[in-house]
Design a protein that fits this description.
Elements: E1 2-5, H1 14-23, E2 29-32, E3 47-50, H2 57-64, H3 73-79, E4 90-93, H4 116-124, H5 130-146, H6 149-159, H7 164-174, H8 177-187, H9 198-217, H10 220-233, H11 252-272, H12 277-283, H13 293-304, H14 312-322
Helix pairs in contact: 4-5, 4-9, 5-7, 6-10, 7-9, 8-9
């Protein structure tokens, strides 16, 4: 049995299908795009099949990670009765993902501890360090989103019409390896079919980044204005002062609320232990003979252990098959 899991599934909720794929014998195959590619812990998976192209190395590794989950042998046998233990998993690459060059994606902000002022000074001094300029592009893009009409007007006056959003975009394009290679081809007249040298690519990258940062590097007034606007718009975070813990623990109000809840619960039990069947069964048995959670856990473990490998879903499905009208609401919602 196989299922297609998407956000538009009509027969059942996607979360119910994923839950069944995680814990049940059926479905044996789940086909989906992105919904369980990352983050989902489905430990019985023994085969991961790639049926679409993946360009990001990080995403590829995360998708492979669906198969590396370790599972206890008894838990595996509960959903795959003929299995002995999960000793490995298999990757089936239908589209050649492992044959193409994957991109090592990085966050745009690479110098979180470097101040905005230092980043601007780096550009003013002719610096083209990729990590510094990447962080500068990230800060400029964030500042551009915060600016209002008045701030944009002041920036345009000082920068001769160059917006900081356009400057940020130009820096990001200058950091693009493909654009750097293309620039090296044109700068050094590299013949068609040949690849530029590493040194040529570095020179092309420096040229692109210098051109992108030129509006900031050549205008001290713009650099001062950007710092002033940033100080005005952004929240100041004190990362120097040391906090002093005065008191730890729940407040008096929280304690009173908790006490009120506990008192109400205990009063309910005391008032209804003669009326509610479940409470009568519990209090009607001596303390030494009362059923405990550990007893129920032992019973559950015995039921789902091989060779039975019974699960609530399997049992409900069997009862539903034999006498459907007596099994009401036997669905994934029950589990």
């Amino acid at each position: 049995m196989s299922v297609k899991i998407t956000c538009k599934v009509t027969a059942a909720q996607p979360r119910d299908l994923i839950q069944a794929f995680r814990n049940s014998f059926e479905p044996r195959i789940a086909v989906t795009v992105d919904m369980i590619s990352t983050g989902a812990d489905i430990r019985p998976i023994e085969i991961v099949m790639f049926m679409r192209a993946v360009r990001s190395r990080v995403l590829f590794e995360r998708m492979k990670g669906r198969g590396v989950r370790v599972i206890d042998a008894r838990e595996l046998q509960a959903v795959t009765p003929d299995a002995r233990a999960k000793t490995h998993f298999v990757i089936v690459d239908c589209v050649g993902v492992s044959d193409v060059r994957l991109a090592d994606t990085q966050p745009l902000e690479r110098k979180k501890t470097v101040s905005f002022k230092v980043l601007l000074e780096h550009v003013a001094m002719g610096g083209t360090d990729p990590a510094m300029l990447s962080s500068l592009a990230s800060r400029l893009a964030r500042l551009d989103r915060q600016c209002g009409p008045e701030e944009r007007r002041r920036i345009a006056e000082v920068s001769n019409g160059a917006g900081i959003g356009a400057i940020s975009h130009a820096i990001v394009e200058g950091l693009d390896p493909d654009r750097q290679v293309a620039k090296a081809h044109s700068m050094f007249d590299v013949p068609a079919g040949a690849e530029p040298t590493e040194q040529q690519v570095k020179q092309a990258a420096t040229t692109l980044l210098n051109q992108a940062a030129e509006p900031i590097a050549t205008r001290p007034a713009l650099r001062h204005l950007l710092q002033d606007i940033k100080r005005k718009l952004e929240q100041i975070i004190d990362d120097i002062s040391v906090d002093e813990l005065i008191e730890a623990g729940a407040s008096e109000a929280a304690k009173q609320k908790a006490k009120s809840l506990v008192d109400s619960f205990e009063r309910f039990i005391a008032d209804n232990k003669e009326e509610i069947d479940a409470l009568q069964c519990f209090y009607g048995t001596s303390y030494a003979k009362r059923l405990r959670f550990s007893d129920l856990k032992t019973l559950a473990d015995e039921i789902k252990a091989p060779p039975r490998a019974w699960t609530p879903e399997k049992l409900w499905r069997a009862y539903e098959t034999l006498d459907k009208h007596r099994v009401r609401g036997a669905s994934a919602q029950r589990f």
